[in-house]
Input
Amino acid sequence: MAVSTPPLAPKYRAASGMSEQLCPYRLVLEHVTSRWGVLVLIELMERPYRFGELRRAIGRVSEKMLIQTLQTLERDGLVHRDAKPVIPPRVDYSLTDLGREAAERVRDLAEWTHRRMEAVQEARDAYDQRPR
Amino acid sequence: MAVSTPPLAPKYRAASGMSEQLCPYRLVLEHVTSRWGVLVLIELMERPYRFGELRRAIGRVSEKMLIQTLQTLERDGLVHRDAKPVIPPRVDYSLTDLGREAAERVRDLAEWTHRRMEAVQEARDAYDQRPR
DNA sequence: CCAGTACCTTACTTCAAAGACAGTACTTTC
DNA sequence: GAAAGTACTGTCTTTGAAGTAAGGTACTGG
Output
């Protein structure tokens, strides 16, 4: 049976009529900065995870979304999938070298955001208080 | 008259019933890695831009989305809006110090993605060729 | 006085990402 | 022999982000 590839964030198609096709690198950027992509990459920096383990570690992620995210990252060569042919199934996910490079940068950004959250919150409060 | 604040990416609300409210830092991360947020931050690293100028520099962005993005980033304290009370209106947008910190990291990530695009493409080709 | 520029705001619409949930196949544990 | 774990796949539905389009204001140049 044909196993269809995941949706792969068909998010930004070329606008109809417009010749402006999104440069492919934007798509990869979308993948690594996606809602669950960020969390997966950061989590996998620590060590390889099994599917269910990763799901529990991230929490509040549906199986569907986690799989979709993992498949997208696998296709992009960022995540390695190691499926052992045993029963019950055992699948280990880990970062590739490429994935680690990406994960480091994503983590930097996430860490920065976390670190500067207070400044952001102050800016927001100031913005919201300003007469508009 | 009450001017409502922009949508501000109400994307990830706390799941109803779930105590798991998305940490606020995730929202900021969403803002800076958003479709137009990335482009705005990177563009503004070069120099301040006027609204129309920025729109033309980025291209293919609707006024609505550009304003929404700028307002979100302004509220987060990443972008400074300098509206001169002249006619016709002149508004200059620039990065704050906080914004520059964010922009540098975003640009790093974007540059990495661009640089490693070839490796990603190879991985994809391999993935797509693999018997599934 | 009409057209154009600059900087927005608002309303309407579309469509894909995400959630919910059921199903598969096989095994171990209660 | 029923339930639960494991790693998925598939479908249906919701929703909210982004696009389109139009309006508004206060001017200036022709």
Remarks:
- The first helix of chain A runs from residue 24 to 33.
- The radius of gyration of chain A is 18 Å.
- Residues 118 and 124 of chain A are 10 Å apart (CA to CA).
